């Protein structure tokens, strides 16, 4: 890979059409503030773990749009707008009957497509309201429930992420589901910019990243780092995760991180190996209308060691290590969000061309957030 050094964004990225949507508030340099750009809804986003959606409705959300998820008698998961068309009471408070969802208040029942199937007390000869509630396209994959919050006509042609390691006999997957109080863009920047390893010095010691190169286009940025260990205390879980690479020995590892809108991936290949010892796939799903809070869904797919059963013994240590690293990252990105809230704008002085490029990818592929006409969050 050749290193891209363009300060204003990757070549070939077109500026957003100013006539397509209300522009986000511009920064002094002329670019819209990325923290006022929303995640584009025309993609598949995980909003729940499959194991959470049973016969009882579950409340979910994307960018302030509330949804009621439920699994019908057929086993299929449905996602409806989380309000009854009658009195606006949340349908997530309702009851599942067969493949329908019944409101807890006046017992109006809805099919999986959002149409009203029954109003128990409706007088004879009186027609039902012509419309029910919005239904969202739903798919289940990788132990997650994905919804398509955008234009439903585009859902069929939009592919889910492809994760060949998930469910393979050679890998075991660790699933993460956490809420982080920050704009999703801070999460993309945090994972892609590996120069923040000082933050994790108590877990991985003196870890030294070197950017080998990166590539960027209109929808993606991919970076490769060489990691070497410079001493200091090293967490045992790090070595087990990386097959005695990071934190386990003095060997070097190559880490590849990719933002391909709207998802992010990370792979680690130890020295003298030709394949990753683990792969991470992650999605950041905005929760509130102003998108200052996001829910992180991550799938960490770890290659099983040759020793039978060793992965089960190592699992608690790996989990503890990854949870600690995530907690430190969350502390940092939530502090970034608090600074943005206090200042009312993005005052970052970014010097790393890689991050300038990923910001442009997120900015040009997202949608401007509309000003709130009512209290947000």
Name a few traits of the molecule:
5 helices; 18% helix
Give the helices and strands, then pairings.
Elements: E1 37-38, E2 45-49, E3 58-62, E4 65-71, E5 77-81, E6 95-97, E7 100-102, E8 109-110, E9 116-118, E10 135-136, E11 138-141, E12 144-147, E13 171-180, H1 184-192, H2 201-204, E14 207-216, E15 220-229, H3 236-241, E16 253-260, E17 263-270, E18 278-286, E19 294-303, H4 310-343, H5 353-365, E20 367-368
Helix pairs in contact: 1-5
Structural account:
The structure is a single chain. The chain has 377 residues and is an alpha+beta fold. Helices cover 18% and strands 30% of the residues. The protein has five helices and 20 strands. The chain has helices at residues 184-192, 201-204, 236-241, 310-343, 353-365, and strands at 37-38, 45-49, 58-62, 65-71, 77-81, 95-97, 100-102, 109-110, 116-118, 135-136, 138-141, 144-147, 171-180, 207-216, 220-229, 253-260, 263-270, 278-286, 294-303, 367-368. The chain has a seven-stranded antiparallel sheet with strand order 13-19-18-17-16-15-14. It has a four-stranded antiparallel sheet with strand order 3-4-5-10, with no helix packed on it. A four-stranded antiparallel sheet has the order 6-7-8-9, with no helix packed on it. A hairpin with a 7-residue loop joins strand 18 (278-286) and strand 19 (294-303). The longest helix has 34 residues, at 310-343. The chain is globular, with a radius of gyration of 23 Å.
């Amino acid at each position: 890979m050749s290193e891209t050094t363009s300060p204003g964004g990757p070549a070939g990225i077109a500026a957003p059409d100013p006539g397509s949507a209300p522009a986000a508030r511009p920064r002094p340099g002329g670019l819209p503030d990325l923290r006022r750009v929303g995640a584009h809804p025309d993609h598949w986003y995980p909003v729940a773990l499959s194991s959470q959606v049973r016969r009882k409705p579950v409340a979910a959300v994307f960018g302030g749009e509330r949804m009621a998820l439920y699994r019908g008698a057929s086993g299929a998961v449905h996602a409806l707008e989380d309000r009854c068309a009658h009195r606006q009471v949340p349908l997530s408070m309702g009851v599942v009957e067969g493949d329908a969802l019944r409101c807890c208040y006046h017992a109006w029942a809805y099919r999986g497509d959002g149409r009203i199937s029954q109003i128990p007390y409706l007088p004879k000869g009186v027609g039902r309201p012509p419309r029910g509630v919005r239904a969202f396209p739903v798919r289940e994959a990788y132990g997650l429930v994905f919804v398509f919050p955008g234009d439903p006509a585009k859902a069929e042609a939009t592919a889910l992420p492809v994760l060949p390691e998930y469910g393979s006999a050679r890998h075991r997957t660790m699933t993460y589901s956490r809420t982080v109080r920050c704009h999703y863009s801070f999460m993309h920047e945090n994972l892609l910019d590996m120069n923040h390893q000082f933050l994790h010095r108590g877990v991985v010691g003196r870890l030294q990243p070197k950017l080998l190169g990166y590539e960027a286009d209109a929808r993606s940025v991919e970076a490769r780092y060489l990691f070497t260990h410079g001493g200091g205390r090293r967490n045992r879980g790090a070595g087990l995760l990386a097959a005695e690479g990071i934190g386990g020995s003095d060997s070097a590892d190559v880490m590849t991180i990719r933002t391909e809108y709207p998802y992010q991936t990370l792979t680690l290949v130890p020295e003298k190996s030709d394949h990753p010892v683990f792969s991470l796939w992650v999605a950041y799903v905005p929760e509130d209308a102003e998108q200052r809070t996001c829910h992180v869904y991550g799938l960490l797919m770890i290659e099983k060691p040759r020793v039978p059963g060793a992965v089960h013994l190592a699992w608690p240590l790996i989990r503890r290590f990854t949870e600690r690293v995530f907690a430190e990252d969350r502390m940092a990105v939530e502090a970034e969000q608090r600074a943005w809230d206090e200042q009312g704008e993005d005052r970052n002085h970014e010097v790393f061309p890689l991050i300038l490029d990923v910001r442009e990818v997120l900015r040009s592929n997202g949608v401007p957030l509309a000003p709130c006409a009512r209290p947000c969050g």
